[in-house]
Amino acid sequence: MGRFSLSYRSWHFIFWSVYLLFKVYHELVWIYPKYESLTFQEALQTAFIAQTSILLPKVLFTYWMVYRLLPSKSSILLKTAKFFGALVITSLLYRVLTLYVALPLAYKEALSETSTFFALNRFSSELIDILFVAGIGTAIITLHRNKLSKEREKALENEKTVAELRMLRQQTNPHFLLNTLNNLYVLARKKSDSTSEAIMKLSKLMKYVLYDATLEKVPLTKEIDLIQDYIELERLRYGKRLKLNFKIEGDVSGEITPMLLHALVENAFKHGASESTKDSSIDICLALEDGLLTFQVENTFDEKTSYKSTGIGLKNLKRQLELEYPNHSLEIESSAGIHNVILKIQIGP
């Protein structure tokens, strides 16, 4: 079922209709016991005509306050002067309409007393009436404006977040392809028989990058497949000098941001095995329990070289986590030639 909504003008119409009915009711309560000669229908008609006749100045004053006075950048003193000036003019118009329109049209012969134009008791009640409805109307419109302003700010913030995430992915994908092409270059220089196989695996990875990586979320199984394909591609380059274990625990259902976990795996190869001439090892463990995904990547590295953890891949990953998984946990430690990363994110209920 679609959400029921009214236009901005419709809400204004409803507000003034409710106010008019409120005033007609009070006028009727005052008229009916006082003028016994009037039937209920005649009293209701009299009250309606009387209140409709004096509605215009209150509407004008309310909208002038909301759309002219309050948004004005004038000083407080000038605004105060304008307010009281407009209030006096509105009161005079109210008095004119009351004496020369409402009373003759509504009460006719039923009203026996004639009020003087400058009767102070009448002015005080009219001022209260004007300020009452203007105050309520101004408060409602101001609250509505604040709500719209917050919604616009939230929408702009969401657009900014989406744009930033899109930019991060646009940076991550070429970065990933660049590293993979570098592997092919190494295999080609060695004139390895695995070059053609590596090209086939690369085409499979590129398909994921071009199609699945553009989605907001992908099944966790697809992200696991990407990691496994990438591992197989890296095995072709490093051969027997790389010892690699990839362990999966738990039911790997759920969805995740594409290429989020891959960044950690890629980082392990780039700053571990790639920068070492000795045998290297990488241990990867993915566990999912009660919607909490724990992803651990541990790799050896050459202690003679400083382990760089400030590359664009890891930097983009940290920012993505802040935007999409604000309650995440990311622990990074390096000591005694072992680099260990543990990422925890909630991907399910």
Explain the overall architecture.
The chain folds into two domains: 111 residues, no CATH class; 179 residues, 2-Layer Sandwich (Heat Shock Protein 90). Helix content is 62%, strand content 13%. The chain contains nine helices and seven strands; from the N terminus they run ααααααβαββαββαββ. α3 crosses α5, α4 packs across α5 and α6 runs antiparallel to α7. The N terminus is likely disordered.
List the helices and strands and how they pair.
Blueprint lengths: L7 H27 L5 H14 L1 H15 L6 H32 L12 H70 L5 H16 L7 E2 H19 L3 E8 L5 E2 L5 H10 L8 E10 L2 E9 L11 H13 L4 E7 L2 E9 L3
Parallel strand pairs: 2-4
Antiparallel strand pairs: 1-3, 4-5, 5-7, 6-7
| Alpha-carbon distance between the two ends | 26 Å
Query: How big is the Rg?
Result: 37 Å
CATH level-two architecture of the largest domain: 2-Layer Sandwich
Structural class: alpha+beta
Q: Which CATH top level class of the largest domain fits?
A: Alpha Beta
Mean pLDDT: 80
Strand order within the widest beta sheet: 2-4-5-7-6
- Report the count of strand segments: 7
Q: Write out the CATH superfamily name of the largest domain.
A: Histidine kinase-like ATPase, C-terminal domain
Order of helices and strands: HHHHHHEHEEHEEHEE
Oligomer: single chain
Continuous helix count: 9
Number of domains: 2
Name the shape in a single word.
Answer: rod-shaped
